[in-house]
Amino acid sequence: MAYIIKFIYGFVLPPGIFVVFLLIVGILLYRREKTIAKLLLLIAFLFYVCIIPLTGKVLIQSLEQRYNPPSQIKGDVIVMLGGGATLDTPNFDDKGQIYSEAANRLLTVLRLYQKTNLPILLSGGQVYSDSGNEAEISLGVPESKIILENKSINTEENAKFTKILLNKYGLHHPVLVTSAYHMERAVLNFKKYNIDVQPYPTDYQTSRKLSLYVNQFTPSINELTFSAAKEYIGIFSLKFH
């Protein structure tokens, strides 16, 4: 019963209500303005496809499966790309907290550090005036093992400013840690600056096995579709620009 209620809510609340509205208008206009009605129905269908969870999961999954975590680490530094943080929320050291995406990356980095004892290069600056800087949030790792890159505000700058620090410290074989769906675009940006990385994807948003059930088709605010679209646009730009 709970799943049925969620399905109904999906069409009563935004953005699902907009699909319903377009469908109703399209049906009402069909006899008088068939061309306009067909266009509205087509827009309703395309909009519906974009806002169901299944679409986002399929798109994200196709990105996440392009790299697998290596069984053996071959590098001299662990590079973590930032994923955002709050500026002044309560924490042990009153420096804010990292977002869930960045937290997943951080957990992987800490496990890799425990396994390899390699230095950690944290790449990520303060994007907006009310956002924090995860590169400056305490990790519980000795300061001598941490290199901070706190100027970059996008993936290209991650690569650009990381290159400078790698040269400064004589490091040549970075193990790159970022979200699995973001990895291909990150690798392409690092290649742009002649940095050969060993990809170590983490922060998976979908399971490898995709299941079909009614709520996969329930309209919702679908962040996965937006994230996937952003990655595909970025990858296309880097490959064909």
Automatic annotation (TrEMBL):
The keyword tRNA processing does not apply. Pfam families: DUF218 (PF02698). Keywords: Membrane, Transmembrane, Transmembrane helix. It comes from the Bacteria. InterPro entries: Cell_Envelope_Assoc (IPR051599), DUF218 (IPR003848), Rossmann-like_a/b/a_fold (IPR014729). Residues 76-234 form the DUF218 domain. The chain crosses the membrane at residues 7-30, 36-60. The keyword Membrane applies. PANTHER family: ENVELOPE BIOGENESIS FACTOR ELYC (PTHR30336:SF4), INNER MEMBRANE PROTEIN, PROBABLE PERMEASE (PTHR30336). This is YdcF family protein.
